[in-house]
Design a protein that fits this description.
Number of helices: 22
Structural class: alpha/beta
Main location: cytoplasm
Number of strands: 13
InterPro entries: G6P_Isomerase (IPR001672), G6P_Isomerase_C (IPR023096), Phosphoglucose_isomerase_CS (IPR018189), SIS_dom_sf (IPR046348), SIS_PGI_1 (IPR035476), SIS_PGI_2 (IPR035482)
EC number: 5.3.1.9
Oligomer: single chain
Keywords: Cytoplasm, Gluconeogenesis, Glycolysis, Isomerase
Bound molecules: 6-O-phosphono-beta-D-fructofuranose
Largest sheet: 6 strands, mixed
Helix content: 40-55%
Radius of gyration: 26 Å
Strand content: 5-15%
Protein name: Glucose-6-phosphate isomerase
């Protein structure tokens, strides 16, 4: 397989070299059917990749690449519950969290569907109790504020989803504390009343230093305000390590489990989504799961050339490995997706930031790009300059809804949504079209500049064009669509990882820093640098805490 893949990579490199200098605008001019040929839909969701430098032949090669890499077989292995996470010897079954069919599905002797259904039902009962005021704080006050304590996958997904679904948020206020920097917890709880605050301690392992430290401080805050006996009313937990949760002292009926076949960054669909469920209600959370499942079915069954996650991944591979672009920007023209880029940073970079293949060999091609972004239109007034005229092309992924929220109650906002769409389309169009020196000069002359001034200024107003972007368009960001979007990105990451033949489901790269942090804590507390530290670390330690 390795040699065959390399042949396809070579053919792709030749294709790019043969078309160097070609403009994407020429491709549009030559083919009136280009948009139809290079876009695909799933329900109301549309993926447009036509503004990338692909021809039908390029796309054919990329599809060959996916087939040669065994994407279809690897996809089947994932859905079948095989232990595709080989370094941790685990199945990868976050898809089972949103497949709520009743048919038993036994993996490693466990009926995962029954387990998922049971936890979801328990979460819904707890959620209804909190939202209705039946479950109160220790003094009988209803819960008005829920503070989730977690980090990484136990934070980013729920934060992102809570903001995304804010139009549906009718439960208690939701807050998220992740950073071990005590300021995060302090600032969050400062305006809150302990008597009406519920903490959810969310940690897959229940050993994560930051989460355990914040949980202990939060416990102290409750105990100091309400007494030790109040802890049971003011804490719930989500974890796979139920023994460790019990040791922390959280009442068993407030502990919601999940399983080692759910990766942290794929866990928002599990009990880790509890703060989201409490915010938007069990029915809206169920729609979120339905959306994820619908996209799973699309990914599992649609032919590769019409398969949205596959196409998104192939464009990613084209840009990363053939064009050599090191980053990609995710720019949602949707304020409710403000935290999507941060969420995708973990999903993508923790999954595919790998340097060895499944066989332990050094990878032959660059893997995960840097993922970054901010909502549009704000990015336009900040970093878009570099995307348009910087020296390294940055592929952009635009996300845009046909309809916004709040427009029914406030019809005047409809115009602002039109402005949002206009800006989104304008940016991708400008990136693709660019502006030549002749066009820039002509514009300056037409604006009344003299020839010398036009010649001097025109080069600064040149845009190379052919700067790649894809656009994902959908009707409205509701729970179902959010589920589809997140599953789309999850499967994109899967397909890219499958082509690179890496394990997208472990994260050993985060371990070394964690080990060093634990050995450094005593040094920070004592102000004494151990001899094993580099001169830099010892010098910094001395500067910060030395006596
Ligand atoms: O350190 C990285 C990581 O293990 C992530 O993969 C995970 O999402 C995060 O830490 C939090 O882990 P946990 O849920 O076990 O506290």
């Amino acid at each position: 397989m390795g040699a065959a893949i390399e042949d396809v990579f070579k053919a792709l490199a030749n294709d790019r070299a043969a078309r160097s200098g070609e403009k994407v605008a020429q491709l549009f001019a030559a083919d009136p059917g280009r948009f139809a040929a290079f876009s695909a839909t799933f329900e109301d969701m549309l993926l447009d990749v036509s503004k990338c430098s692909l021809t039908p032949a390029t796309l054919g090669l990329l599809l060959d690449l996916a087939r040669t890499a065994g994407v279809e077989e690897k996809r089947a292995a994932m859905f079948a519950g095989e232990h595709i996470n080989i370094t941790e010897d685990r199945a990868v079954l976050h898809t089972a969290l949103r497949d709520r069919s009743a048919t038993p599905f036994t993996i490693d002797g466990q009926d995962v569907r029954a387990d998922v259904a049971k936890v979801l039902a328990d979460m819904a009962v707890f959620t209804d109790g909190i939202r209705s005021g039946v479950l109160t704080g220790w003094t009988g006050k209803p819960i008005t504020d829920v503070v989730n304590i977690g980090i990484g996958g136990s934070d980013l997904g729920p934060v992102m989803a809570t903001i995304a679904l804010s139009p549906y948020h009718d439960g208690p206020r939701a807050h998220y504390v992740s950073n071990v920097d005590g300021a995060h917890l302090f600032d969050t709880v400062k305006p809150l009343d302990p008597a009406s605050t519920l903490f959810i301690v969310a940690s897959k392992t229940f050993t994560t230093q930051e989460t355990m430290a914040n949980a202990a401080s939060a416990r102290q805050w409750i105990v100091e305000a309400l007494g030790e006996a109040a802890v049971s009313n003011h804490f719930a937990a989500v974890s796979t390590a139920l023994d460790k949760v019990a040791a922390f002292g959280i009442a068993p009926d407030r502990v919601f489990g999940f399983w080692d076949w759910v990766g942290g960054r794929y866990s928002v669909w599990s009990a880790i989504g509890l703060p989201v469920m409490i915010a938007v209600g069990a029915a809206n959370f169920a729609r979120f799961l339905d959306g994820g499942h619908a996209l799973d079915e699309h990914f599992r069954t649609a032919p590769l050339e019409k398969n949205l996650p596959v196409l998104l991944a192939l464009v990613g591979i084209w840009h990363r490995d053939v064009c050599g672009y090191a980053t990609r920007a995710v720019i949602p023209y949707d304020q409710h997706l403000a935290r999507l880029p941060a969420y995708l940073q973990q999903l993508d970079m923790e999954s595919n930031g790998k340097h060895v293949t499944l066989d332990g060999e050094t990878v032959a091609h660059d893997t995960g790009p840097v993922v970054w972004g901010e909502p549009g239109t704000n990015g336009q007034h900040a970093f878009f300059q570099l995307i348009h005229q910087g020296t390294s092309p940055i592929p952009v992924e635009f996300l845009i809804a046909a309809r916004g929220h709040g427009e029914d109650e406030w019809p005047g906002l409809k115009r602002q949504h039109a402005m949002l769409i206009a800006n989104c389309l304008a940016q991708s169009e400008a990136l693709m079209r660019g502006r030549t020196l002749e066009e820039a000069t002509a514009q300056l002359l037409a604006a009344g500049r003299d020839k010398d001034a036009a010649a001097k200024i025109a080069p600064h107003r040149v845009f190379t064009g052919s700067r790649p972007s894809v656009t994902i368009a959908y009707d409205k960001l509701d729970p179902y669509t959010l589920g589809r979007l997140i599953a789309l990105y999850e499967h994109r990451v899967f397909v890219e990882g499958a082509i690179w033949n890496i394990n997208s489901f472990d994260q050993w790269g985060v371990e070394l820093g964690k080990e060093l942090a634990s050995t450094l804590l005593p040094a920070v507390e004592s102000g004494q640098a151990p001899a094993s530290l580099s001169a830099s670390a010892a010098g910094l330690l001395h500067h910060l805490v030395g006596q």
